[in-house]
Design brief:
Length: 381
């Protein structure tokens, strides 16, 4: 079955008995049982997959998790309170099994912060690697996890995921990926050997900038330590958030296609503007990176950034502040366009400033027009 059909028809088990298209939201802490046998039975069932206690989820959580596991072509899924909590669950659960984590460079900043400031305190070391490093040389006898994010949030770096998975598995090491940017529409991590796939569903999957939620998928075996960690640490995903995310999933395919089409139009247009020095967008990559992109991703809407020609800080500020369709803010993946400047050089009175863009579902010509009006504030130096 094609993913577009799966997105529409999966995760319906709690809607059907109510003769409804969509599931109900049940808000409960207590789960009541009809008799003693059912109560005892509930204790033997898989946590986060069966009605047991509100913290472990209700039917709508299970519907979302079931749909997501199927969409990513694997066995099981756990929803968590945020993308970050999903990342923390995977890193913590697997850090406990060794003393060393290998992580690709340029990952989401809070992920790196958790490794450097939290796992380090627990005696777990993290080594960062790039696509040019030899994984074989970096693996240690106490390495328990290889964690990747492709394209990486910071510089949009790519990796040969299949090769990394093969080497990891030869050494009995588990591979986890932050798959947020690709979404299940453009990227199928498990098909490249990734064992655990993590999504900030906050972004494209929910797609409406009104939910914070994380999702982790994998086989029952690889998910077992994560499930256990979530069980011990009071992990919870709210039913309302799962409900909205399941609704977002229904239109993910159509939204991603438009996000991609619009991003391509705006990125091409920006590249041609005299105020823009460089556009960094994976579909524009050349050489080896183009091969990595084309063999692993069937499309891409983000991340995407542009480096401006050097200009005065004051002009750059006028440009950002004059935009009407692009809101200044982070958390990309919603229906409306966003812009954020990279803050590294914003204290300089003049520089080649960098902007990150999220292209929403507006008409792309309107978006280009908005950017053009803004760019008119810039006198090149
Ligand atoms: C936003 C984001 C996260 C964190 O997700 P939250 O739901 O905001 O906690 C993790 N990874 C990537 C790549 C993200 O963009």
């Amino acid at each position: 079955m094609d993913i577009s059909t799966k997105l529409i028809h999966l995760g319906k088990s709690s809607a059907k008995p109510l003769q409804s298209v969509n599931p109900p939201i049940v808000k409960t802490s207590t789960v009541t049982f009809p008799d003693l046998e059912a109560f005892i039975d509930s204790k033997t069932q898989m946590v986060f997959e069966n009605l047991r206690y509100g913290r472990y989820g209700t039917q709508v959580n299970f519907d979302l998790q079931h749909a997501m596991a199927e969409i990513e072509g694997t066995e099981t899924c756990i929803a968590t309170s945020s993308g970050m909590s999903a990342i923390v669950a995977v890193l913590s659960a697997y850090a406990e099994l060794g003393k060393h984590i290998l992580m690709s460079e340029g990952v989401y900043k809070s992920t790196k912060r958790f490794c450097d400031q939290e796992l380090a305190k627990r005696g777990i070391e993290t080594t960062y690697f790039t696509k040019d490093d030899s994984i074989e040389k970096l693996i240690r006898s106490d390495t328990s996890l290889i964690y990747i994010e492709v394209p990486a949030s910071s510089k949009l770096q790519l990796l040969d995921i299949r090769r990394i998975s093969e080497v990891a598995h030869q050494h009995g090491i588990t591979v986890a990926s932050d798959s947020t940017w690709g979404t299940p529409i453009f990227f199928q991590p498990h098909a490249f050997g990734v064992d655990l796939s993590i999504h900030s569903a906050t972004k494209y999957i929910n797609g409406h900038s009104d939910v914070i939620l994380g999702l982790i998928t994998g086989t029952r075996q690889k998910m077992a330590p994560v499930r256990e960690w979530c069980y011990r640490h009071g992990s919870h995903a709210a039913p309302d958030s799962c409900w909205l995310t399941l609704r977002g999933l229904r239109t993910l395919n159509v939204r991603m296609k438009i996000h991609q089409k619009n991003t391509m139009i705006v990125a091409k247009w920006l590249k041609a503007q005299k105020e823009i020095d460089q556009v960094v967008y994976p579909p524009f990559f050349t050489g080896k990176d183009a091969t990595l992109w084309n063999t692993q991703f069937s499309g891409g809407a983000g991340p995407f950034k542009a480096i401006l020609q050097p200009c005065k800080r004051q002009n750059f500020e006028q440009f950002i502040n004059s935009l009407e369709l692009f809101s200044l803010g982070a958390s990309y993946g919603g229906y409306s366009s966003l812009i954020t400047p990279e803050i590294s050089n914003l204290n300089n009175s003049e520089d080649a400033y960098t902007i990150r863009l999220h292209i929403g579902l507006e008409n792309p010509e309107d978006l280009c027009q908005d950017l053009r009006t803004g760019l008119n504030s810039i006198d090149l130096i």
